[in-house]
Write a structure and sequence with these properties.
Elements (H helix, E strand, L loop, with lengths): L4 E7 L3 H15 L3 E3 L8 E6 L6 H18 L4 E5 H14 L5 E3 L7 H9 L4 E3 L7 H4 L11 E5 L1 E2 L10 H4 L4 E2 L2 H13 L4 E5 L12 H9 L7 E5 L8 H9 L6 E3 L7 H6 L6 H14 L4 E8 L6 H14 L3 E6 L16 H24 L5 E9 L5 E6 L4 E5 L8 E9 L4 E5 L1
Parallel strand pairs: 1-2, 1-3, 3-4, 4-5, 5-6, 7-10, 10-11, 12-13, 13-14, 17-19
Antiparallel strand pairs: 8-9, 15-16, 15-18, 16-17, 18-19
Helix pairs in contact: 8-9, 9-11, 12-13
The structure holds 5'-deoxyadenosine and iron/sulfur cluster.
Iron/sulfur cluster binds next to α6.
EC number: 2.8.4.3
Organism: Boseongicola aestuarii
Subcellular location: Cytoplasm
Length: 435
């Protein structure tokens, strides 16, 4: 029997890439590959890339530079670039960096076995198609191995919203939803293998239309699965929060009280320029409605500062919105022009000004995040335990609000759900006692 070949995947960017990396590893499993967590002894290295903000391609070139010694030490090593940078600039990467054997876009990685065979044969392989066939149906089945208690499950990909700053509609293509029965099949399989919490993923997941009643229909069906205890979804657009999805936050016990709902800016002028198709006011009303059915909801968001045309008054409107809404978690970015997007043609805000705004916004968001975490002290939460902590006897998991919680207890193990009283808020986690 030949020894298994080793596959090292480095993943950048969003959770969808984490999911894709898992599926790519499974797919190459059929070609005799096993995963390794270091590039030193790998027979194949795959960089699963992200293109959302600036310097993505440069980052990949420097990462490839770091891989050079491995290729020199092992001429049989194959190097591949996957993900959204591959989609956007794959051919150029291959031309500029001869070390790269394989380029595969996010919509064609089910063809990896054929591409791998090609590179093993000494050829180069490039596939950045948007094929007709459903890649998930053409992937080798997940092996039946036991899994950890949480898993991602991609249900929707691509985006038709065309926010003026964003490359996603170009790199991931048009919105496509996986049929509900296939998602259910994959979910049942995950639960059979020990998964108790599933996070449904999509670039615009609440635009999911693979179920007659949309995302909430899928969530309600999943909630009937015995053994599946928690459901989450990310990431959403405000305009796709329909009535039943809002209602589900109030009446579906398995749907966790955490929502990532990006607004990007608090200025109507900037929201219009961003092509967001909602106003600050409509967003605030929407949050009020969701909190009306689920008052303890922990809200998360994304913000961009320094979008072309943003004045100090526009930025102030963003700060005002953040103050009015209150976020338990948030991500904020300085605008970076992405080639091919409409906003890239517009005059940029002074970089120093944008940096300064980003710092001010981050200071406010950090304050809110800390307040939301500190506010948990004294409360009882339910924790799904995922792994041992750094200290002896410690277990770490997540509360329903996605806060990391650690306890020192021999009563709980991996995959257990337990009620925990929070006793202390430390830097990035909460300390608790099992009740
Ligand atoms: N510049 C800065 N931030 C961006 N994002 C998307 N495109 C850009 C860009 N060109 C941010 C948005 C989005 C998150 C995933 O990344 O806030 O919600
Ligand atoms: Fe990009 Fe999200 Fe806007 Fe779609 S909705 S274009 S993924 S920021």
């Amino acid at each position: 029997m030949t020894a298994p070949k080793k596959l090292f995947i480095k993943t950048y960017g969003c959770q969808m890439n984490v999911y894709d990396s898992e599926r790519m590893a499974e797919s190459l499993g059929g070609q005799g590959y096993v995963a390794t967590d270091t590039p030193d002894d790998a027979d194949m290295i795959l960089l699963n890339t992200c293109h959302i903000r600036e310097k993505a391609a440069e980052k990949i070139y420097s990462e490839l530079g770091r891989m050079r010694p491995f290729k020199e030490a092992n001429p049989d090593l194959k190097i591949g670039v996957a993900g959204c940078v591959a989609q956007a600039e794959g051919a150029e990467i291959m031309a500029r960096q001869p070390m790269v054997d394989l380029v595969v876009g996010p919509q064609s990685y089910h063809r990896l076995p054929e591409l791998e065979a090609k590179v093993r044969d000494g050829q180069k392989a490039l596939d950045t198609d948007f094929p007709e066939e459903d890649k998930f149906e053409h992937l080798v089945a997940r092996p039946k191995a036991k899994r950890g208690p949480t898993a991602f499950l991609t249900v929707q990909e691509g985006c038709d919203k065309f926010c003026a700053f964003c490359v996603v509609p170009y790199t991931r293509g048009a919105e496509v939803s996986r049929p509900a029965e296939r998602v259910m099949g994959e979910a049942l399989d995950l639960v059979e293998r020990g998964v108790r919490e599933i996070t449904l993923l999509g670039q615009n997941v609440n635009a999911y239309h693979g179920h007659a009643r949309g995302l909430s229909g899928l969530i309600r069906d999943l909630a009937k699965v015995d053994g599946l205890e928690r459901i989450r979804f990310t990431t959403s657009h405000p305009n796709d929060m329909d009535d039943d999805l809002i209602a589900a936050h109030g009446d579906c016990d398995k749907l966790m009280p955490y929502l990532h709902l990006p607004v990007q800016s608090g200025s109507d002028k900037i929201l219009k320029a961003m092509n967001r198709k909602h106003t600050a006011e409509s967003y605030v009303r929407l949050i009020e409605r969701i909190r009306g059915v689920r008052p303890d909801l922990l809200l998360s968001g994304d913000f961009i500062v320094g979008f072309p045309g943003e004045t100090e008054a526009d930025f102030q409107a963003t700060l005002d919105l953040v103050e009015a809404v209150g976020y338990g978690q948030a991500y904020s970015f300085k605008y970076s022009p992405r080639p091919g997007t409409p906003a890239a043609e517009r005059a940029e805000v002074d970089a120093g000004e944008a940096d300064e705004r980003l710092q001010r916004l981050q200071a406010l968001l950090t304050r809110q995040q800390k307040a939301a975490q500190d506010e948990m002290v004294g409360r009882e939460v339910t924790v799904l335990f995922e792994k041992p902590g750094r200290l002896r006897g410690q277990m770490v998991g997540k509360s329903e609000y996605l806060h990391a919680v650690h306890v020192t207890s021999d009563k709980v193990g991996r995959g257990d759900l337990a009620r925990v009283r929070i006793v202390e808020s430390v830097r990035n986690s909460l300390a608790g006692e099992v009740i």
